[in-house]
Write a structure and sequence with these properties.
By secondary structure, the chain is mainly beta. The protein has a single domain, classed as Jelly Rolls (Sandwich), CATH 2.60.120. Helix content is about 10%, strand content about 45%. The strands form two sheets. Strands 1, 2, 3, 4, 5, 6, 8, 9, 10, 11 and 13 form an eleven-stranded antiparallel sheet that branches. A hairpin with a 5-residue loop joins β8 and β9. The two termini are about 20 Å apart.
């Protein structure tokens, strides 16, 4: 099986619709188990929760990547459950982590996606790192409209943005 799939899957219209989605921005952090406080040392960005049900065409395209990653991962077995619209400004980052969690209804995140919606012309930093099964780190160069799909138990990070702004949609794919 591959470490990841990277390709542009969203249209300009998809990107525009996502960037115009209604919602309130909050401070992104990492919630520690049993603690309602966020850990901004581990994760720093602005986040807007938007609901995948409002973007069925985007969900279809994200699910469509699954068969390229793993031919046995068909759309009848998975669905997009969560979106995070994230803005990384100067200093924002997300340290090494895995996305595997079990939801309240006992569903498990199986796949994670990151889609670049916008990069400022002056962007420096904000690179995406991912580790293979041996711990070897791969830096993935993501351009606007690129979507990266990988298993949610894969360790990954976003390096600090040192200049400019990076806007992404993170979506998680769960077992049905």
């Amino acid at each position: 099986m591959k470490l990841y799939i990277k390709q542009p899957v969203l249209s300009q219209d998809d990107v525009k619709a996502l960037m115009n989605a209604q919602g309130r921005f909050t401070t992104a952090g990492v919630y520690r188990q049993g603690n309602s406080l966020t850990d901004r040392n581990a994760r720093s960005a602005s986040v807007k929760q938007i609901h995948p049900k409002n973007f069925p065409q985007v969900n279809e395209k994200l699910i469509g990547l699954l068969t390229q990653f793993n031919p046995e991962a068909t759309s009848d077995k998975y669905y997009v459950k969560e979106y995070n619209y994230l803005i990384y400004n100067v200093g924002d980052h997300f340290k090494w982590h895995r996305d595997v969690i079990k939801s309240k209804d006992n569903k498990v995140r199986r796949f994670s996606t990151t889609t670049v919606l916008s990069l400022s012309d002056d962007l420096e930093g904000g690179d995406f790192g991912i580790k293979d099964g041996t711990g070897f780190e791969v830096n993935v160069n993501l351009q606007e409209r690129d979507t990266l799909l990988f298993e949610s138990n894969t360790e990954h990070q976003v390096y600090p943005v040192t200049k400019g702004k990076r806007v992404v949609l993170v979506a998680w794919i769960y077992d049905k």
